Structures are given as C-alpha cells and as structure tokens.
Amino acid sequence: MSKSVKFTSGQFFVAVHRLARWFEHQRRILPWRNDPSVYRVWVSEIMLQQTQVVTVVPYFERFMTHYPTLDALTAASEADVLKLWAGLGYYSRARNLYRAAKIFVENGFPKSRAEWLEVPGIGDYTAGAILSIALDQPEPILDGNVERVISRVRRTSDRARLRRLSRAFVETSFRRGIRPSVANQALMELGATVCSPRQPHCGKCPLFDICHACAAGDAEQFPESKKRKEWIAIQEELHCIFGEDGRVLLREREPGEWRAGLWDLIEPRALDKSRSAKTALTPMGTVQTRHIVTRHKILRTTHVWKAEKKGIHLRVKSSRWVSIHTPEVAVGAALQRTLNRIREKFPEVSRLN
Ligand code: SF4
C-alpha cells in the first residue's frame, strides 16, 4: 500500500496559481483550444479517447473543414462521417458522435454532467472535460495524465482518493479565481509534457515544491501500475479479389457486425455463397498482416485472387469494386495496411487501375 503525505493549504494555493501561470505560457497550440466551443471540444474529446494528440490533430482539422458546425455534421450521412474518420480507429466513436449530433440538433447540447452521461459515447472523463473546458464548470476530470500528476503530488495510488482529489482541486481552484478550463487543462498539460511516466522533468515543474513523490525521489513508482492487459488473439481469413481492370471487391460491414459501416475484404462465407459457375478465380498467393485493436491481437490472412469475370460481385451482398489506391469508401487502418501489403506484393495487378 502506498503512503500519502499532507502539505499545507497555503503551499497548495501558491503552487496552483503557479501552475495556472505556467499553463498560460507553456501550453501547446492545439486546434480545439482556439475557439473552445461546446461543439469543437466535444468532437476533439471524442477523437482523443484512446488516441494520442499528435494523431488527432490532422483528423480534427479535416473534420472541422468538412463539418464546421453541428448543422453541417447532421446534414452529412453516417457513411460520409465514417469515411472522414477512416484511419483514426475505434469506429464506434464516429457512429456515436453522429447519433449524438442528431439528438443535439433537436434538443441542444446538454448542460449538466448527468445529461452528458446520457449521450452515446460519453463517459465520466469526457463529460468532465466538456463541462470544464467548454463551459467553465468546476467539474473534475481524471485521465491518465491528471491521475499521474495528482498521484505523485500526493504520493498515493488509491483510485477513490484520486477521484476525490481531482474534484477538490478544480472546485478549490475555482473558488480561488482560477477558471476550471485553465485548472483542468493545466493539470492535463503538465502530465502530458512534464510529468512523464518515465523520468519526469521535476526541475521544470511548477508543482515541484508541493510534490511528495518528487521529494521522496520515487515519482516513477506512482501511480502503481494497474493489472496487465490481457490480450485476445484473433485469426481472420479474408479474400481479396482483383477484377479484370485491377479494381478490388470490398463489402460494407452491416449493423451488428464488428466494424459496422466500414468496408473490408470478402469473408470466406460470403465468397462461398456468391461463387457462380461462370466465374473463374485464379489464385495469386497469400499475404499475412498483424494488427492491434484495443485488447485484440489480430492475425489476418488474405488470399489473393484474380477474377476472370466481374460477375462475382452480383452475389456478394453490399459489395462494390473499388480502386486499391483510393477506395473512396470508409476503410479502417487494418484494411489499409492489408491493401498496402497486397500492392507491394502484386504490383503488376495493382498497376492496372
Ligand atoms: S514534481 Fe515531478 S513528479 Fe511531481 S508533479 Fe512535477 S513533474 Fe511530476
């Protein structure tokens, strides 16, 4: 069990004001920080779930160019939104975002934590982030970065205690004149840029004189590591069929299927059902690719074929022929990687379109 240490409230307030000043001067320029409206903060927070800032930035900018407002987003189709999301992963986020947008356009944005928690795709952390960053409400957030900073400052890994401390931090800062958007983002920023998991830069930290883990020299021990992730191994088998013109056949995954709304190669079951006597498939070879999606380690084996006649697509439900270079439908990172590997291995067929 870790032991926590107390510091005086006077020290705390000096350090918190110093933290707010540090944030004003050192914060990174991020597109959602410029004009932090509820719409923009909501979209950015959904994109940032399980995804690093550096990955999200270009997606966020592209999204805002296409859908600068809630009205623009709801005027689009879910397929268009998924297409724009393609490559960012965790596609249920895009589907939930779209569902939520339809609700907001009717009823307006929620105003309280309880209302936000009713929204598809919104959990405790995201609700707190939107309320504090966009609406300046003194609501706590406890993401990995905030947890690490508070855990080290108070030298504790007790989750319930960390939750209480994150609330006390933003509420007390608010009473002392620090806006919740500044208080919470300052802690997040400190965790992201200074209080790193390994070798934190305590010499540059505005909280160094109240940080007990720093004083004890054991910051890296906090927070204590959680249980190791348990991996689930999945083996996928798919067919990539090249048409006479070098285009490939993709199928849209249906509601209820994993990765619904995204397009992918053809499963053996669909191919068996669709094969007609007139269609000749010539085997070209096999490629294997590996992907990690949340806790899943996926080994994907793709059999590559050349179809002599295009008639095969008539029997595969929700399928269409697309360019292997620019599919022009929503494809995930796993398919993109598979197509890249196929292009490398079979350049002569890929060059046909
Ligand atoms: S003093 Fe060091 S360990 Fe403590 S919060 Fe700052 S960077 Fe993290």
3D structure, described in words:
The chain is of the alpha+beta class and 353 residues long. It has two domains: 9-221, Hypothetical protein, domain 2 (Endonuclease III, domain 1), CATH 1.10.340.30; 232-350, Nucleoside Triphosphate Pyrophosphohydrolase, CATH 3.90.79.10. 45% of the residues lie in helices and 13% in strands. It has a three-stranded mixed sheet with strand order 1-5-4, covered by helices on one side. A hairpin with a 2-residue loop joins strand 4 and strand 5 (296-307). Helix 9 crosses helix 10 and helix 9 crosses helix 11 (180-193). The termini are far apart. The structure holds iron/sulfur cluster. The site of iron/sulfur cluster has 15 residues, from helix 9 and helix 12. Iron/sulfur cluster (SF4) binds at residues 149, 152-153, 194-195, 200-202, 205, 207-208, 211, 213-214, 219.
Q: What kind of sheet is the major sheet?
A: 3 strands, mixed
Whole-Å distance between the termini?
63 Å
CATH superfamily of the largest domain: Hypothetical protein, domain 2
Bound molecules: iron/sulfur cluster
Nearest-integer average pLDDT: 90
Beta-strand portion reads 5-15%
Describe the strand arrangement of the main beta sheet, using strand numbers. Answer: 1-5-4
Number of helices: 15
Shape: elongated
Please write the string of helix (H) and strand (E) elements: HHHHHHHHHHHHEEEHEEEHH
Named CATH topology of the largest domain? Endonuclease III, domain 1
The tally of structural domains comes to: 2
The CATH architecture of the largest domain is Orthogonal Bundle
What's the helical proportion of residues? Answer: 40-55%
